[in-house]
């Protein structure tokens, strides 16, 4: 059974930094595209950042230049370094693992989420 376990959330003042981690119990972690999503109260879950198995990254416009996604296949872990945090970054952050095989089987896994609160 695949599990994604996030850590690193917490309370931080505006302008502060946090680093989220997500460790996956996936036997072939390196072939998955990984991502971070977030959901604020009363809002839909939205994409924050993704990193492909090849290392290509994509960011939501709202976090470009402030957040950095990275991965360590040896540790089966994906990271989200967040800097210059704003109150509007407050949300539950979810880790995602996604794979579409050559025969079009799709696998999509989610972590349980970690709370990030930006407040003075």
Draw up the topology in text:
Blueprint: E1 4-7, E2 10-12, E3 18-24, E4 33-39, E5 46-51, E6 57-59, E7 67-72, E8 77-82, E9 91-100, E10 106-110, E11 114-118
Parallel strand pairs: 2-11
Antiparallel strand pairs: 1-3, 3-8, 4-5, 4-9, 5-6, 7-8, 9-10, 9-11
Brief descriptors of the model:
120 residues; mainly beta; 4-stranded antiparallel beta sheet; elongated
Short description:
The chain has strands spanning 4-7, 10-12, 18-24, 33-39, 46-51, 57-59, 67-72, 77-82, 91-100, 106-110, 114-118. The protein is mostly beta strands. Strands 2, 4, 5, 6, 9, 10 and 11 form a 7-stranded mixed sheet that branches. A 4-stranded antiparallel sheet has the order 1-3-8-7, with no helix packed on it.
Rounded to the nearest angstrom, the radius of gyration is 14 Å
Mean pLDDT: 96
- The N- and C-terminal alpha carbons lie at a distance of 40 Å
Question: In percent, how helical is the residue content?
Answer: under 10%
Instruction: Give the helices and strands as they follow along the chain.
Output: EEEEEEEEEEE
Secondary structure class reads mainly beta
Q: Outline, from the CA principal axes?
A: elongated
In total, the number of strands is: 11
Tally of helical segments: 0
- Poorly predicted residue ranges: none
Strand content: over 45%
Q: What oligomeric state is this?
A: single chain
Largest sheet: 7 strands, mixed
């Amino acid at each position: 059974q695949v599990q994604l376990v996030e850590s690193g959330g917490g309370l931080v003042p505006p302008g502060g930094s946090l680093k989220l981690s997500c460790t996956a119990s996936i036997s072939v972690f390196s072939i998955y595209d990984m991502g971070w999503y977030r959901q604020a109260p009363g809002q839909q879950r939205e994409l924050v950042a993704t990193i492909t198995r090849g290392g290509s990254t994509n960011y939501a416009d709202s976090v470009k230049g402030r957040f950095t996604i990275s991965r360590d296949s040896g540790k089966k872990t994906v990271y989200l370094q967040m800097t210059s945090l704003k109150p509007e970054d407050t949300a539950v952050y979810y880790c995602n693992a996604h794979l579409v095989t050559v025969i079009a089987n799709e696998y999509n896994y989610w972590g349980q989420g970690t709370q990030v609160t930006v407040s003075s």
